[in-house]
Specification:
With 351 residues, the protein is of the alpha+beta class. The chain contains 6 helices and 12 strands.
Length: 351
Amino acid sequence: MTAITIDTIINVSSEAQSSSVEWIKNADQGKAWRGNAGAKNFVEFELAKAIKPEHIDVGNYGTSFLEILVRNSGSDSKEWKTLVPNRLILARQLAKEFDTAGIQNVVLLGRNDMTDLSSSKWNQYRVVCLQPYNKEQPFGLTFISVFDQAAPAPAKTTTPVTTTTSTPSQTIPKLRSTPSFGQFSKRESKPKPLSPMDVMSQLKVSRKEDKALAEAAAQKAFAREQAAKEIDKRAQELVKRHTPKTLPSTTAEASVPSSSTTSRSNLSTTQPHNKDAKRSSTDNLSSSLASNSQPQAKKAKPAPAKPAPAKPAIASTVPYDQLLKGVTFTLSGYQDPARGNIRTRATAMGA
């Protein structure tokens, strides 16, 4: 769309003091045309050529209701026709307060706000302003811009920032991947190459870490070995404590001859007398009297019996899984894996 300049101001209802209707031609002046307070103010102007209105921008200054009418200068009919019906563009409260910041706004009117007359060409426009809510303050407009419907819209192009224009490929702008802040952009950080000192320091750190890990593993292995030795030692002590001891033979048993030896000696001495008794009873009596009359010294003495060696007592064997039967273990101060090894072995021994 292209804004068509206002060529001539045809008519104006009124102008307040220190205001001019010519100011509506330029939107960049920042000044307002103001009509009389409490009256129906309007301004009529002619464009440089007849156009099909596509868009109309109106700068408001205290006007509550706005209406736009059109006609052509070369036609026989001088009647104004409604292009934009009467519409509210400023609220009542703002109109009553009439604050400078509150009464100024910009109204954008498009094809949806216009009647079917927007499809025809027109070169004369009449803008009607009303302010029924405030009868004491002058009101009007700051600018009016009419855009042509037939004019092609200008393509939005971005001018690339290039250093040389020797080839077409160099004129293609490059997209910036780095974040930018206004005209400033963040510089990309490149990794710095490692110096020999940096490499040596990294190697030292890695060696220290490996050494610490090896020491920790050696300490754990030593702790497991010590715990296993301690378990074996305590198990042997428990086995010795619960094994019954053999009782030694007394001296009295060694000095007293056995009954079997005495009986054998008696049988050996009395055996010939028993044979004589079988032959005759007389011979038996004589032999018995003769044996009784002999002195005690002539009697044959039995040889002293040797003491029987004491038989060792057979130790009662206890199964390995019942060595600690009935024993309750309470572990305190041991950590894994030593705690687990002690518990496993004690359970295997019946605890």
